[in-house]
Design a protein that fits this description.
two-stranded antiparallel sheet, single chain, 125 residues, alpha+beta, Thiol Ester Dehydrase, Chain A, five-stranded antiparallel sheet, 7 strands
Length: 125
Amino acid sequence: MSEFTEMVGEERTQAFTVEGLLTTDVGGTLPVSVLSTPGMIGMMEHNATQLIAPALPDGAGTVGFEVSIKHVAGAFEGAECEAWARLDEVLDGRKFRFSVEVREGERVIGTGIHERRMIEIPTGE
């Protein structure tokens, strides 16, 4: 598990376009679609998962168990954004705490903390 401690401070960025299932028109209350809060959090979770995944042992994966996120600005459909994650802490050799953010250029769209836990994936045998 020491490889996880050595990863503390590592970062990952993933570009994405605000489109499709990532968007909402807030139940028809907006004349345009914007990045939804669940879509934004999904991109944060995905990026954090991809940061830690290469270091996991065979037969292991991670599941999210906590998000503390602020959605502080809007991004319109078609916007080019980036999800960023940094591994900040490893607890008990199986819990991973990340700082996460979504930006459109220099503008912060969302920011917060995300935690994931390592689990053993059943093989079905």
